[in-house]
Design goal:
alpha/beta, UDP N-Acetylglucosamine Acyltransferase, domain 1, five-stranded parallel β-sheet
């Protein structure tokens, strides 16, 4: 009896599962290449002054629309509304550009090491990660959950920053250094928030139904209000946890309850150096 080849395995999967159309299409058509190509091209449209030229032609925008429409078709069973959804996404580009430029400006203002906005746009991993997340977030809202995750996971693999497409992030968001940051699906982040490396905005626990299955769709991750700064290694958990505006959360803090605005939270094990 001959060994089963990969094609045989795929065929059996198709017979047993209705969702393996995705697996088939990814096998050759996606495989990451189209995701990377799309991010590369849309970055030229969103930030032409840094990645292409001073002016974007209508033809370039049409090309982006074609690419996103293709990706939508590759990752969804619902083909009937793809063209309209792709157009809806294209209409979001001016707002996305505005948000990303505000993120870049925030990084320039807050990081004393930054010499130019060009350096930030091209070289800062946090800017790349939040740019991709903002794109993925719009696709997530349109119902293209798998495509949104593929985009965000590419950014995750490239930067070490893991932001779920479902997270809601206000303007002027800055992740300094960035490596190791994790932001969960139902996180809500306000405006002018700064987060340092190794921060986790996660779930404290998962509610279960009578059968012991995790209940999906609940608010599991914290809310971070405007002008909050969270230092390296802090962990903030829970859907009911709210960090009030203008608060400072110190490094390595473990926080599972809300704090009012203008709070300063530090670890009780923080070392004190006396001179």
């Amino acid at each position: 009896m001959r060994e089963k080849c990969l094609g045989d395995i795929y065929e059996e999967l198709e017979q047993n599962y209705n969702t393996t159309f995705v697996m088939y299409r990814f096998k050759e058509e996606l495989h990451g290449e189209k995701i990377v190509e799309f991010i590369t091209e849309i970055r030229k449209v969103l930030l032409p002054e840094y990645f292409s030229c001073k002016k974007i032609s209508l033809n370039k925008v049409n090309q982006i629309q074609e690419k996103i429409e293709l990706l939508m078709r590759l990752t969804s069973n619902e083909d009937s509304f793809v063209q309209n959804n792709a157009l809806d996404f294209i209409k979001k580009l001016p707002k996305l550009r505005e948000l990303i430029l505000q993120d870049i400006e925030s990084a320039f203002v807050k990081d004393p090491a930054a010499r130019s906005t060009e350096e930030i746009a091209i070289a800062y991993p946090g800017i790349f990660a939040v740019m991709v997340q903002r794109i993925a977030h719009e696709l997530n809202k349109l119902g293209y959950y798998l495509l949104a995750r593929l985009l965000s996971e590419h950014a995750h693999s490239k930067t070490g920053i893991d932001i779920h497409p479902g997270a809601s992030i206000g303007h002027s968001f800055f992740m300094d250094h960035g490596t190791g940051i994790v932001i969960g699906e139902t996180t809500e982040i306000g405006n002018h928030v700064t987060i340092y490396q190794g921060v986790t905005l996660g779930a404290f626990s998962f509610q279960q139904d009578e059968s012991g299955n995790v209940i999906k769709g609940l608010k599991r991750h914290p809310t971070i209000e405007d002008d909050v700064t969270i230092y390296a290694g802090a962990t903030i958990l829970g859907g009911e946890t709210i960090v009030g505006r203008k608060s400072i959360i110190g490094g390595n803090v473990w926080l599972t309850e809300s704090v009012p605005e203008n709070s300063k939270v530090i670890s009780k094990f923080q070392t004190k150096i006396l001179y």
